[in-house]
Every structure is written in structure tokens, then in C-alpha cells.
Specification:
The complex is a heterodimer. Chain A is mainly alpha-helical. Chain A contains seven helices and no strands. In chain A, helix 2 runs antiparallel to helix 3, helix 4 packs antiparallel against helix 5 and helix 4 crosses helix 7. Helix content of chain B is 30%, strand content 8%. Chain B is of the alpha+beta class. Chain B has ten helices and six strands, in the order αααααααββαβββαβα. Classes of the chains: A mainly alpha, B alpha+beta.
């Protein structure tokens, strides 16, 4: 009997440890939290670009970029790609005016990411960045 | 004893076997993910009403939500029917009938203007006014003294096409000498002007320019003159420089949610938008209008990236006694066209 019970315990122990109810789910630590957030808006844009453009415009102004160059590269890549996609759906102009702020933060990286993008999207972003810079930094009456 | 021991062994072996069978399914049961879905924020059941948000088939809440296959006849409403082909034909006929006198005039008299202006009792009294067909394509068109009362609230989503598109109200006083504010509440006029969609033509980021145009039209003041009084390039200047106060507006925080109020915001958190702030008018459609519109004020819209600095309401007595009183009547808005098409603003006509 003892043998049987000990055998039973030995067999059931691994099953118990892998019990989905008591299992401790390990949280996947993301390197780039901002990238995850942008990915969520990418998925939203797959459903409705208009809604995603409006919603993303609400929070893009508050984005803070990482001091780590590698992480910042990832962030810039994600943000600029989504900006290129949603620029025409940005009714509040928050995405547009965020472009010169991004360029001021890291002009070299901004240029590199733009060169990696499709020429049409890169041109659209570049033109908008210049327009916004002129508009906001010049003597234009806003 | 032997039998009992045997049955015990059988039970244990069965238990053991069942565990062996169950174990793989338990280990492969997977785990739950608690990652929130991208800002969807909706649940299947509305907590307020307890009714399901999404129903299937022809299900209607409270009618057949649990039996969606049961046929529910469509509700009969007394709303105005949408234009059907027949009503569209009738509308076409009415339009043709309205145009007939003008066409007849063209055929009969060569000197009669083809616009039909002479036959229109509204525009006949004002020879300077033009019908949309004959108006120039420039956004700041010919002389016009239309006011905010003209702007229909239903045209909130229609882009503002300049003064020539507006339907003229026969009750609105016209004429070059007319420079006093329109009858009725100025705030109501401001709310209606904002809701007309006029600001959509100002261009992205041009909130202050759009609001200045709203004020000029609502007060029936020359926009160039008004811009010489309500000065500043950034929206926050309306508050910090005291531009609105100088023009006769009062900062009244109790009226921040009243239609027609002018809300001025500062920004924080860095960036150009934060530096320049924002300004908007609560329209008659309950949307907050500048160069764009939303049902949320900008401080809510940008999730706290803006801070409300002032809620300005017009004081008719102060406006009448202030520098705006010397401004001429509204002659068309300067927003909408490009800088080349836009007439040069007279900074101050005083």
C-alpha cells in the first residue's frame, strides 16, 4: 500500500505543479513598452484607421522615448511607421506636430528610419514635419 | 480479506490509471493571458442596464434578445422619410420650377443678370449681394454681412466654403453700415458659428485663427480689424496677453460648459503643442470646435496634456465700449484659402 501511495504521489506531483489554476504565470518582460502600445494601435488600425488615427493622436504627444539607443531605435521605427500610416486620419494634428519634436530629439535616427521606409510615406512624413516646423516655429498665427 | 485486498488494489490501480490519463490534458491545458485588449474597454454586458451590448441575428434588447430567430417587425416611426427616387424627382421638379423665371428672364431680356437675383425677393433689396452661382471662387468673396444666425447647426460636418455658400436670412440686417453685434445672445451666435464647421478650413494646428474667425463672424466685425485687437500667434496668448479681456471678454469659470464659451488651454510635457496651447469654442452641437471638433474638450481629449487656463464669455457692454466697437462689419472670413489667396489682413483699422 505504501508503495502504491508513494508511487501515486510521485506521479501526481508533476501534474499538480503544472496545474493551470495554481500555476504562476510568468510575465513576459517587454524591452520596449512603447512598441507594445504602438502595436496595439497597429491592430486597431487594421480594423479602423480613422478610429486609430483619432485615438493615437490623443496620446502620441505624451510619448517619452528611451535614453537607450537600441530601444529608441525600436521606438522610432514603430512610431514613424504608424505615423506614416495614420497621418491622414489625424484630425487633431497631434501626430503631425509630434514629428518635429521627434526629429529634434534624435535627428540622425529620424533620418535613418525615414530612409528605411517607403519613399512615398517618407516624403509625406518629411513634408509634414517641415510644414509643422515652419508653422509652429515661425511667426505664423496659429 | 483476500477479496477486499483485491478490490482495494483494483480501485488504486484505476485511480492511478485515471491520473495517468488525465495528466497530459492537465499539463497541456495552457494558461490564461491577462493582457488587456487594445483600449477596447467594452464588456459584453452593459453594467448600467444589465443588457447585452452585442446581440445576434435580429435580436433586440428586451424584446427577443434570448431568441433572436423570432421575427420582430421593424418599429414604425414617425420620422421624416429619406428621399426616395419619387421624392427626389419631386425635388428636381421644384428646383426646375424655381429656376424657370431666371431662365425666362435670360431668354426675354439680354441685360437681365442670369443669376436670377432680380427675381429673388431676399437679395433684390441688396444689389451688392450675389447668389452662389455668380459668386467668385475666392473664399473671401464679395461683400457679405451674414451673421452666425445664418449658420445651420445641421451643417456641422460640412466644411465651411466661405460666405458665398451661406443661405441668407431675410431677417438679418444687411448693409455696409451694420457693425453692431447680431440680435440675440452673442454666445449663442458664437456657438452656432463654431458648429457651422467654419473652422475646418483653418488648417491643421490653426486653432487660434479659427476661433478669431468665429468671434469676428458672431460679432459681425471685420476679421482683419478684430485680429489687430485679439492679438498673438499662439492660442495661449489669448489668455496670457489678455487679448480676449481687452476685446471685452470675461474669464468666468462657472460657464466653462456653456455653449459659446471660449476655452483657452496651456500645455505641459514639452513639445510644440504644449508650448503654444490650444483654444476652442463649445458649439451649439455640444462639440468643442477649433480647426477640428470633438465631443470632448481638449484636456480630456489629450488625456491631460492640456490644462484649462480660462473660460471666456462675451460681455456685450464691454465689447460695445471697447476697441472692437470701432471695427467695421464682417466682410468674409480669411480662413480657408491659402496664404496667396487670402487677402492681406489690416492689422488695425483704428
Amino acid at each position: 500500500m505504501k508503495f502504491v501511495f508513494s508511487l501515486l504521489l510521485m506521479v501526481s506531483a508533476p501534474a499538480w505543479s503544472k496545474n493551470p489554476i495554481l500555476q504562476q504565470t510568468e510575465k513576459k518582460v517587454s524591452v520596449c513598452k512603447l512598441c507594445d502600445r504602438v502595436d496595439q494601435f497597429e491592430r486597431m488600425a487594421d480594423k479602423s484607421e480613422e478610429l486609430a488615427g483619432s485615438e493615437w493622436g490623443r496620446e502620441v504627444a505624451s510619448y517619452k522615448y528611451s535614453a537607450d539607443a537600441k530601444v529608441r531605435r525600436l521606438e522610432y521605427k514603430k512610431v514613424l511607421h504608424l505615423a506614416g500610416r495614420l497621418l491622414s486620419f489625424d484630425k487633431s494634428g497631434e501626430i503631425s506636430v509630434h514629428l518635429p519634436d521627434m526629429k529634434d530629439r534624435d535627428a540622425k535616427l529620424y533620418g535613418e528610419i525615414l530612409r528605411e521606409m517607403s519613399p512615398s510615406q517618407a516624403k509625406e512624413l518629411d513634408d509634414m514635419e517641415k510644414k509643422m516646423r515652419k508653422q509652429y516655429d515661425g511667426k505664423t498665427e496659429l | 480479506m483476500g477479496r477486499r485486498a483485491l478490490s482495494q488494489k483494483r480501485i488504486l490501480s484505476m485511480l492511478f490509471a485515471s491520473l495517468l490519463i488525465l495528466e497530459p490534458s492537465m499539463t497541456n491545458a495552457g494558461s490564461w493571458s491577462y493582457t488587456p485588449v487594445a483600449s477596447s474597454g467594452t464588456s459584453a454586458v452593459d453594467p448600467a442596464t444589465g443588457q447585452p451590448r452585442v446581440l445576434y441575428g435580429n435580436a433586440q434588447p428586451g424584446v427577443n434578445q434570448y431568441h433572436p430567430t423570432i421575427y420582430v417587425p421593424p418599429p414604425v416611426t414617425a420620422t421624416t422619410p429619406s428621399p426616395t427616387p419619387n421624392t427626389q424627382n419631386q425635388m428636381m421638379l421644384q428646383m426646375a420650377g424655381a429656376m424657370l423665371p431666371a431662365v425666362m428672364g435670360m431668354l426675354g431680356k439680354k441685360n437681365t443678370p442670369a443669376t436670377g437675383a432680380s427675381t429673388n425677393p431676399i437679395t433684390a433689396s441688396n444689389p451688392g449681394s450675389q447668389t452662389p452661382a455668380s459668386a467668385p471662387s475666392s473664399p473671401s468673396g464679395g461683400p457679405s454681412s451674414s451673421t452666425a444666425a445664418d449658420a445651420p447647426a445641421s451643417s456641422a460636418n460640412r466644411p465651411y466654403r466661405g460666405t458665398q455658400d451661406e443661405e441668407r436670412d431675410p431677417g438679418t440686417p444687411t448693409g455696409p453700415g451694420q457693425s453692431s453685434p447680431p440680435s440675440g445672445d452673442i454666445m449663442e451666435a458664437l456657438a452656432k458659428t463654431a458648429a457651422s464647421g467654419m473652422g475646418l478650413n483653418a488648417g491643421s494646428g490653426m486653432c487660434y485663427r479659427a476661433v478669431k474667425a468665429f468671434i469676428a463672424k458672431a460679432l459681425n466685425k471685420n476679421e482683419g480689424c478684430l485680429r489687430g485687437i485679439i492679438t498673438g500667434g499662439s492660442a495661449i496668448d489669448a489668455h496670457r496677453n489678455g487679448s480676449l479681456k481687452r476685446a471685452g471678454f470675461v474669464d468666468d469659470r462657472s460657464k466653462c460648459k456653456t455653449q459659446g464659451v471660449i476655452r483657452v488651454y496651456s500645455g505641459h510635457g514639452g513639445g510644440r503643442n504644449a508650448k503654444h496651447g490650444h483654444i476652442e469654442v463649445l458649439g451649439s452641437d455640444n462639440k468643442y470646435w477649433s480647426f477640428f471638433s470633438d465631443y470632448r474638450p481638449i484636456d480630456e481629449y489629450t488625456r491631460g496634456a492640456r490644462k484649462l487656463e480660462g473660460c471666456y464669455v462675451p460681455d456685450p457692454a464691454k465689447i460695445a465700449a471697447g476697441p472692437l466697437a470701432k471695427c467695421g462689419p464682417f466682410t468674409g472670413s480669411m480662413i480657408g484659402g491659402g496664404s496667396a489667396a487670402r487677402p492681406r489682413a489690416k492689422r488695425n483699422s483704428r
